[in-house]
Automatic annotation (TrEMBL):
<dbReference type="InterPro" id="IPR006297">
    <property type="entry name" value="EF-4"/>
</dbReference>
<dbReference type="GO" id="GO:0003924">
    <property type="term" value="F:GTPase activity"/>
</dbReference>
<keyword id="KW-0496">Mitochondrion</keyword>
<dbReference type="Pfam" id="PF00679">
    <property type="entry name" value="EFG_C"/>
</dbReference>
<dbReference type="InterPro" id="IPR005225">
    <property type="entry name" value="Small_GTP-bd"/>
</dbReference>
<keyword id="KW-0472">Membrane</keyword>
<feature type="binding site">
    <location>
        <begin position="105"/>
        <end position="112"/>
    </location>
    <ligand>
        <name>GTP</name>
    </ligand>
</feature>
<dbReference type="GO" id="GO:0005525">
    <property type="term" value="F:GTP binding"/>
</dbReference>
<comment type="function">
    <text>Promotes mitochondrial protein synthesis. May act as a fidelity factor of the translation reaction, by catalyzing a one-codon backward translocation of tRNAs on improperly translocated ribosomes. Binds to mitochondrial ribosomes in a GTP-dependent manner.</text>
</comment>
<dbReference type="InterPro" id="IPR038363">
    <property type="entry name" value="LepA_C_sf"/>
</dbReference>
<dbReference type="Pfam" id="PF06421">
    <property type="entry name" value="LepA_C"/>
</dbReference>
<dbReference type="InterPro" id="IPR000795">
    <property type="entry name" value="T_Tr_GTP-bd_dom"/>
</dbReference>
<keyword id="KW-0342">GTP-binding</keyword>
<dbReference type="GO" id="GO:0097177">
    <property type="term" value="F:mitochondrial ribosome binding"/>
</dbReference>
<comment type="similarity">
    <text>Belongs to the GTP-binding elongation factor family. LepA subfamily.</text>
</comment>
<feature type="domain" description="Tr-type G">
    <location>
        <begin position="96"/>
        <end position="298"/>
    </location>
</feature>
<keyword id="KW-0999">Mitochondrion inner membrane</keyword>
Amino acid sequence: MIRSACNRASTRLSQVTFCPTSRYAAWQTRSQAAEVARPVPTSHGPSSRRSTFASSSSSIRYYSSSVSRQQASSSSSSTSSAVKSDARDYSKFDRLETRTFSIISHVDHGKSTLADRLLELTGTIPQDGSNQQVLDKLKVERERGITVKSQAVTMVYDYDGPREDFISAFDDGFAPKPGRYLLNLIDCPGHVDFSYEVSRSLSACQSALLVVDATQGVQAQSITVFELAKQKDLAIVPVLNKSDLPAADPERCSIQMEEILGIDTTLPGQEPLLISAKTGKGVDGVLRALVERTKPPPGVEDGKLEGREGPGFRALVFDSWYDQYKGVVSLVSIADGAVKKGDRITSCHTGKRYEVLSLGVNSPEMIATDVLRKGQVGWIIANMKDMSEAQIGDTFHLANEKVEPLEGFAPTVPMVYAGIFPIETTDFLKLEEAIQRLALNDRSVTVQRESSMALGQGCRLGFLGLLHLDVFRQRLEDEYGHAILVTAPSVPYKVTWRDGREEIVSNPIHFPDDSERKAKVNLLEEPMVRGVVRCPEEYTGEIMQLCAEHRGEQLDVSFPPSASAIRSVQMTYRLPLSEIVTDFFDKLKSCSSGFASFEYSEDGYAAGDLVKLNFLISNTVLDSLSIIMHRSKVMYNARQWTKKLKDIIPRQQFEVSIQATTGSKVIARETLSAYRKDVTAGLYGGHYERKLKHLNKQKEGKKRLKALGVGRVQIPTEKFLEVLDTRSKAK
């Protein structure tokens, strides 16, 4: 359901037409008039409420900021020290003084940079110029420059009240009062592989900042995350970032928002905010908009903690992680009531009771508080030692109360599978424990044990995409220090047997070979995806050829409006998932000079002529190298891989046969010649039969090696990694 948003996004992008001539002229007229004198809107007509965009960002917005980052430093420093010196201040905010929001955007549109500026302006972190990706705490996030894990942080903002030109964005005329407000920010990933993280985080929010790059406009992932936010019924605050760059075109981006996203920028509370997250210009207007354009969490006020009056306590668990000293830490959003240290709470999922040992908020480090109230986002440590008890989507409530569980999260369906094995087979139990702890922090990963004749005990994991797999692997190495071996990725295939049974096969070992297929299988199907490629028009030919080589079926070609002067083309293809989990992304970036973007969503299954390719070393099947592929590519890959195996397998004292088979048919073979000791070197003269006797004795000894099993070929670990790298780059 999450990825299907990409499908709808591609259709809507292709249907948009762009004719900006008349509207742009009108916009210029309004901009020039605004530079002289900006009237206060007196009616609710489109002309009076249209936000004005000019080449100078100082004349644009209802929510403008004249406070630079340097000026804001002095005003927020006192707030910062007060908040941090008295952590209990966080527990004094009621529901009406709380806002919970998320930042959503396409990749590289400035989401993490905006979060840094918000933290600085609220005094949550010092303004020393060294703040970069403060909420991206993982090593993999800082190295790759992307957000892969949602983070929650609590800020305190001093709101000075509505300005003279304020118009309520709500039908009931809601207007906030001056004072201090508690802002809960949940920073979300931007890549489609982490859409489950986005969906979970949005469930704990009431509003979202939709950040769009003013130089690029609305992109495919912008539409995807926007639709996820609308499904959660969140209030959307559009923000145009990088508006200070020469290539920025706010007018055209605003038109895109109206035509593609359906955001009516003529209405109060929906006009885009122009900012520069890098310099901090206009970011104070974002904080003001969060208070004025969004409402507090719905519901009645909390009762007194002492008497437990009012609604019962309910909290949604939307994230968790394992701390080796504290046990399981649960990140929760308080839906009703309040909870304090010492309370006994119950899990709706397991029915077990726990005592609240500690609770608090992230600001951005963990700060303990006395109470968490309705609308707040914080962490709870409740003496939960078993990792399996921490369920994402669970509901916590007081032990002596009966409540209805909150709506949880739908389980994810993995798109890519891979086996993970320890380099040293004796380290399997340590590796399994590390995987379980990391999976606690990423519940979209599925885990099950598997065994390989070549690699020993390991785990087979399911992921939402290739980037998801690669990030999990790096986190496993960085955070737990494990040297691991990852098999080539595979996808789940559907097998329909002749007795009517349907089975999903994700491990090539369990896939029927040719002989079994003819006797027992009625239909083999492979998963398909609907992919949307967007690139400059000049790369159209190369990308079409690439998609054709990967068995892609072209569905649509369109030329959507672009926020830049370069004309873009958007192509929609239906592709087998197995074709894009290899090196498709690398080839796409190569043939487009890095300018192409690719988003995909699942698109059901389709019948395919699929076969299982096995590799035999000295007539022994190497199960960890088995792979499923289309019959049209079997011969080429079989020849390439047998040659590669011949190059990397060490020579033995006996001849080694390397075979590639489909069923019982050998389709490629290489022979690794044996080391041969010169057993006749010590003979000086004599009859030829003396030499022949020694040679025959040597030959019989090599036969005995094979017969006793001593001749079994052992592939060194570093060589096996080369084999797997070859497989992952199959043609």
